[in-house]
Design a protein that fits this description.
Globin/Proto; heme; globular; Globin-like; 131 residues; transport; 7 helices; metal-binding; iron
Length: 131
């Protein structure tokens, strides 16, 4: 990991991050806990995720410029997010980072950084969260 570069730069900037996100959503649609929460057309979701993660990892503030303040918890309230779904989301991201050959130290840092938001979005108990 290079502490002189942002995470965004270390992940390959826009093109590298987009490859990770596309790989990630390929896994999400195969994950039974997550797939029902996403629309058939993932292109708008991929675009927003790219904008958000670009900003979140130290790149240009694309998400805020396009959509205003992220308010991610509020934007996810309409979806039943459980701890199990947060775990599955992180698992898909971890696998996508591995598939894109992100070095272990950086991959672990990225996953650790994403744990905060992933669990912050939890709004439903496991028994309520059946889609």
């Amino acid at each position: 990991m290079n502490s002189e570069q942002t995470i965004y730069q270390q992940l390959g900037e826009s093109a590298g991050l987009l490859r990770i996100i596309q790989t990630f959503y390929g896994k999400v649609v195969q994950e039974p806990l997550l797939a029902p929460l996403f629309p058939e057309d993932l292109n708008p979701v991929i675009e927003r995720q790219h904008q958000f993660l670009t900003q979140f990892f130290g790149g240009p503030p694309l998400y805020s410029e396009q959509h205003g303040h992220p308010m991610m918890r509020a934007r996810h309230m309409r979806f039943p997010v459980t701890n199990e779904r947060a775990d599955a989301w992180l698992g898909c991201m971890n696998a996508a980072l591995r598939d894109q050959a992100v070095e272990d130290e950086l991959r672990e840092f990225v996953i650790d950084r994403l744990k905060g938001p992933a669990y912050h979005f939890v709004n439903t108990s496991s028994s309520e969260g059946r889609a």
